[in-house]
Amino acid sequence: MSRKNFLTNFGVLGAAAVLSPSVLATAAEKGTADVPQLPLNRKVRVGLIGCGSVSGVYLPHLANCQFAEVVSLCDIKPDRAQKRAKQFSGATVYPHIDKMLAGVPFDLLINTTNMQEHGRLNKIAIAAGKHVWCEKPLANTYKEGREILDLAKAKGVKIWGAPAVVNSPQFAFMAKQIAEGKLGRIAAAHGHYGHEGPHWSAFFYEENGGSLPDLGVYNIATLTGLFGPAKSVVAMTNVITPTRNVEDKGSIQVVAEDNAQVLFEHHSGVISHIQCGFNYFDPYGHQGKGQERPTISVYGSKGNMHMVGYDWMPFGVDMATHENPATQRFATDTGSYVWQEGASVICECMSTGKQPLINVEHSLHVLEIIEAARESQRTGQRINLNSAFPWPMVG
């Protein structure tokens, strides 16, 4: 979609003031970093580090991916890696990333460790010349994430980060309606995601954990994916439940936010808002199965649109417009999309040369928003953002 059409469909006047040429130029320039390398034309050899709960969902998907071959598994608790190897792959098992990197050769590191370890391990893998797919977040700070990307560019390798929400047919449908002006002038949007909190590990509640990088990251990725980069953030965060009982450490003090509300102003003129937390009773629970209520809502001057189900597992889109005021449900076919597909999709892209929608600059922008939300809570001020990413994502 052209810049002119994009601005027209959002109903934004004074385009130069709203989406400055410098922002678009920066995003376009950064987008060149994601031009695919020459395709491998073979299966991508994968090493996965972090054999906890998430690996139990990733590995079955990778096992069914024709473009991936899992050759090594690593965990500081070797019995967990041994268990996964027996369950899914028969890969060689390692107790430490250094031994993994010195062992069976592989192309792509998949990082499903505790989020506090993501930046450190990503940097080690990239320094060793490995491509990286990382579960969210990409790093603990925007500065660290930017340094990791700069290192990847210097090493001639690539890094991508979860979540994969922009891959869903429902996201594509919503982006298309917005691009075609079906909702008129887009004004506002809302996203929410929460449950009662994970019980299996303390890292969710420790420093650099929290509901924003664990839960809010999905809605932030969805809303910035639909409306483009945000230029400023205002937020409030706090801790509602000061102590938790978790399986790995027993009773702990909660340090990271377990309750957050974040308001962003997009360069496109849209004002959007997300809320997330570990204190939300939801009958659908952490897995979200059976969730039939909207969790992403978009409002425009000529219509409204609502994503049904969580944005990481949507089931359809409800839409009503001036032309068709009776709400109808669209995009009920989820296709092959599942939240855990990101690493498999990247394997396909590395193997074939196909270009992914998932973009590391988008992941970094989401990370900057999370950091800015915490800074807004600390200072009581609106925080301006510096990052951007190639957008629109769906033409």
UniProtKB/TrEMBL annotation:
InterPro entries: Gfo/Idh/MocA-like_OxRdtase_N, Gfo/Idh/MocA_oxidrdct_glycsds, GFO_IDH_MocA-like_dom, NAD(P)-bd_dom_sf. The keyword Zinc does not apply. This is Oxidoreductase. SUPFAM superfamilies: Glyceraldehyde-3-phosphate dehydrogenase-like, C-terminal domain, NAD(P)-binding Rossmann-fold domains. One of its GO terms (molecular function) is nucleotide binding. Keywords: Oxidoreductase, Signal. Residues 174-305 form the GFO/IDH/MocA-like oxidoreductase domain. Residues 1-27 form the signal peptide. Residues 44-160 form the Gfo/Idh/MocA-like oxidoreductase N-terminal domain. It comes from Flavihumibacter solisilvae. The lineage of its organism: Bacteria, Pseudomonadati, Bacteroidota, Chitinophagia, Chitinophagales.
